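TASK: fixed-backbone design
INPUT:
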């Protein structure tokens, strides 16, 4: 019984991860805080360039477009 439940839970988790909705980018990752400390692509949690700039203010970091967002394939529905 435990094996069956574990197998079904694993299968459900696999379907959730593989679904197109899970692979779609949210609007919160368009810009990345980049620099020596952050590396590349950096801290990619910013929805607007202004949010990223505010976090980079006073540091040696800068903001750039998230490469995963910039080079993702367009989905046509």
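OUTPUT:
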């Amino acid at each position: 019984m435990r094996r069956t439940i574990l197998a079904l839970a694993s299968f459900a988790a696999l379907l959730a991860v593989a679904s197109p909705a899970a692979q779609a980018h949210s609007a919160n990752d368009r810009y990345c805080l980049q620099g020596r400390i952050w590396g590349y692509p950096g801290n990619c949690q910013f929805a607007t360039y202004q949010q990223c700039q505010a976090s980079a203010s006073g540091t040696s970091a800068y903001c750039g477009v998230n490469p995963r967002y910039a080079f993702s394939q367009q989905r046509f529905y």
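COMMENT: The chain has four helices and three strands.
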